[in-house]
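Hi support team,

I submitted a single chain yesterday and got back a structure, but I'm not sure I'm reading the token output correctly. Could someone confirm the output below corresponds to the sequence I sent? I've pasted both exactly as they appear in my results page.

Thanks,
R.
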Amino acid sequence: MRRGIEQDTQFPGCVGFLDGTDIGLFHAPSFEDETYMNLKKEYALNLQAVCDNNLRFTFISAGYPASVGAPISFGSTPLFSTPATFVSKPA
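Hi R., thanks for writing in. Yes, this is the structure output for that exact sequence:
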């Protein structure tokens, strides 16, 4: 994957692309609903995802309320806390 990304994008050593978004909720949650409100005043969940150079998802994490920032949301994922589980050093 690393070689494919390097060839396609010229980002040496890159193993994926991380981004986050909000997943809208149709109804307000019944418990602590204000924490699920995003900056647009809509109820939502926070989603973090990594994709490869072929636009395939290689990691997805969702579930935090939208009011939780991306650094906290991503910082609590196993990809952040134990990256060696997901990414190995090149031989």
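A quick pointer for reading it: The longest strand covers residues 57-65. Let us know if anything else looks off.

Best,
Support desk
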